[in-house]
Amino acid sequence: MSSLPDITEGRAKMDHPLIAVPTHDEMIEQLFVRDLKVYVMGQLEPVQAKIASAEEKTIDGNADNSRVARLREKMSEHESFRTWLAMKRESQRQLWSTIGDSVERQAADLEALADIPEPKGSVRTNPDFVAPDYILSGDIHLMPGGNAHDDNSLMQGAVMDRGGAVYMLGRNGGMLNDLRGQTAIAHALTRFPDFKPEKILDLGCGIGTSTVPAAMAFPEAEVHGVDVGASMLRYAHARAEHLGAAVHFSQQSAEKTDFPDASFDLVYSCALFHETSQAAVMNILAESKRLLRPGGLAVHLEVPLLHDNTDAWVELSGELEAQYNNEPNWRGALTADYAALYEAAGFSDVEIGYQPTSQDARQGPYRFGPESEGVFRSWFVASGIAR
Amino acid sequence: MTRTPLPRTPNRLDAIEGSRDLDEQMLGMIVSLASEVTVLRARLDACERLLVSTGALEKGAIDAFEPDAEGQAEREAQRQQSMQKIFRPLREAALKDLEATEGATQ
After folding, report:
1. Residue A95, C-beta contacts closer than 8 angstroms, at least 6 positions apart
2. Domain A167-386: which topology?
3. Which residues from B are below 8 Å from A103, CB to CB?
4. pLDDT band at B94, cuts 50/70/90?
């Protein structure tokens, strides 16, 4: 099983000192969750794909919505399909459960570590902030309490950090979980190798996994991150400080921020769109345009699009993921016409395609093309220049 | 400082079409037990390795272990106790069935 994702049992080998450190038993629980996910994905899911393939032959018509709906009806008659769905969800519930225990146990230690005497960056929370409906109507990724949860501590941020690293099965940069951020910045450097942005904004920054890479790649720049969750932002701030990155975090909606017009050179987001709504995507693009100075660059990174509409099972899998793992705009974000949306928002020189996953934005790879190189090996990116 | 416990149940858990809630509850319990067994086994393995590394236990000593007569009797009782505890519901259901069947045929 050498192909297992790289989450080692070495608890001492942590990538930053703030991350919740598991005990022996917690580590085994987390590895159990990872192994369960690999099993469900690698052993159960392919069988469902084959059942779907057989069922599809009995369905007439093209791969439109009704075909996907019909396939769903057929699949729902199979007990093993329902069990597979339940196991997928249970693996996710187990993930948050074990991480929650681990974080609560060491909350005092984490709070002490987060007390930074002379921070380089800052955090600004807003007690009157109301999160958008798509955040409040279902807890994204089934993380109990959701992204906007706030108990005046940083525990939810700690849960997201450790949980995210296990959830991504180590495929997004181990415990730093930062490859999407590195890739978005690598895309900017692919387009403009000598790019020297003075002000950078990461929209929907969460705990700052994708924000820190911008501060590292452009140490002279003023880097900001906005998100809806106060707990996550307090954690993001402390995490960035421990990593030596100066970032200014604030609690705001990516759809409408309080920054002045034309005040940024680079505005980006990483896998944000599929957690919002179709209307929000348009608002976020409009806000990106408002915030960029003319000539500034917007980069929005997403998971691979659903190009292949002839495969009803691929469509159905996405639909199920969206419904049972609470990804509110999965379908909308993965089928959008980004070229048209960017044009309409006031961008020119729009580029749509796939950026290979970067380990370090300053090391490349600096290539961009129309074809996906595979899930986790490349990311969908749409970028454009503010007119 | 008083800390608020983290929430443990996510908002919005859609029903899986055609499944009973009990199915998912049973599955959840089995997965949790599997997790517990995995943790127990790893902990036992850690104990063994630590004991071997300090010389308190010879490598392979547990596999080569043969309990004496008293030990065997105690371990037999432990296994029987586990058996009764775990499969109690099946025996209870069968006895109830028997009672009903005998009642109907008398």
Report:
1. A30, A33, A37, A163, A166, A167
2. Rossmann fold (3.40.50)
3. 6
4. confident
Query: Are the C-beta atoms of residues A181 and A189 closer than 8 Å to each other?
Result: no
Nearest-Cα distance to chain A for B14, in Å, is 7
Residue pLDDT, tens place only, A315-356? 898 889 999 999 999 989 998 999 999 999 999 999 999 999
User: What are residue A325's phi and psi, to 5 degrees?
Assistant: -115, 10
Compute and round to an integer the Cα radius of gyration of chain B: 23
Task: Tell me the C-alpha distance between A206 and A232, whole Å.
Answer: 6
Residue A355: closest CA among A228, A219, A235, A191: A191
Q: Which residue, A214, A219, A263, A236, is CA-closest to A156?
A: A236
What are the domain boundaries of chain B?
Answer: 23-65, 68-106
Please, which residues have CB within 8 angstroms of residue A135's CB and are 6 or more apart in sequence?
Answer: A146, A147, A148, A228, A275
- Alpha-carbon distance A67 to A70, whole Å? 5
Residue linked to tokens 């309080």: A258
Number of H helices, E strands in chain A: 14, 8
Are B10 and A149 in contact (CB < 8 Å)?
no
Q: What is the ipTM of this complex?
A: 0.80
Across the interface, which of A24, A82, A103 has its CB nearest the CB of B19?
Answer: A82
Cross-chain residue pair B10–A143, CB shorter than 8 Å? yes
Give B35 to chain A, closest Cα distance, Å. Answer: 6
pTM of the model: 0.89
Q: Which residues from chain B sit within 8 angstroms of residue A77, using beta carbons?
A: 18
